[in-house]
Amino acid sequence: MEKKWYVVHTYSGYENKVKTNLEKRVRSMEMQDKIFRVLVPVEQAVEHKDGKRKTVMRKVFPGYVLVEMIMTDDSWYVVRNTPGVTGFVGSSGAGSKPTPLMPEEVQAILRQMGMEETRPQVDFSVGESVRVKKEPFTDFVATVEEVDLDRQRLRVLVNMFGRETPLEVEFDQVEKL
C-alpha cells in the first residue's frame, strides 16, 4: 500500500477545525503510520476594505480538506468519523473506497499554496550495488536496474538461488554499500 492524497468534504467553515480534530485523532489512535498530512488549501489574496488594501489567506476549496494517507479500513474509519467530516470525495457509495487525487493535481495544489512537494535527494544510479532493508529480503545485496523518481522507487535485482529476481523497493528500503 502506498500513501496517496484524498479529498475530504467538511461542513463549510469547519475546515480548520476538521484539520485540528483529525490530527488529534491520528495521534490518539496511533495512526501516524497510515495518515500523514492534513492540509486546508489556502492562497494569499488581496482584499480592499474601507479603502485599505489588506493581504489575507483565502481557502482555495471551501468545504474541503486534503489528507495524505494509506487507504485501509482503519484509516478510512478514522477520517470518516472525525467530527465535521461529511465524507470522502470520489466514493461512489456506502463502503466503497474513495478515488485518490492524481499526482499532477496534488502538485498543482501544493504549487498554488507555495508548498512544492519535497522530493528526497536521490543518489542511486543504475548498476550500483545496494543492501536491501525490506523484509523478507533484509541484508540481501542487490543491483539497481531502474530509478523511478516520480514514484520514489527503485527496481533492483536480487540474486536468489543463483537467479536474478526483480524487486521493487522505495528509496528508504535500501542503503548504499
Spell out the blueprint of helices and strands:
Blueprint: E1 4-10, H1 15-28, E2 35-39, E3 42-49, E4 52-59, E5 64-69, H2 73-80, E6 85-88, H3 103-112, E7 129-132, E8 141-148, E9 153-160, E10 163-170, E11 174-176
Characterization of the model:
This is Transcription termination/antitermination protein NusG. One of its GO terms (biological process) is regulation of DNA-templated transcription elongation. Keywords: Transcription, Transcription antitermination, Transcription regulation, Transcription termination. With 177 residues, the protein is α+β, with helices and mostly antiparallel strands. It folds into two domains: 4-113, Alpha-Beta Plaits; 128-176, Roll (SH3 type barrels). The chain contains three helices and eleven strands. The chain has helices at 15-28, 73-80, 103-112, and strands spanning 4-10, 35-39, 42-49, 52-59, 64-69, 85-88, 129-132, 141-148, 153-160, 163-170, 174-176. The strands form three sheets. It has a five-stranded antiparallel β-sheet, with no helix packed on it. Strands 2-5-1-6 form a four-stranded antiparallel β-sheet, with helices on one face. The chain has a two-stranded antiparallel sheet with strand order 3-4. A hairpin with a 2-residue loop joins strand 9 (153-160) and strand 10 (163-170). 19% of the residues are buried. The model has no long low-confidence stretch (mean pLDDT 85).
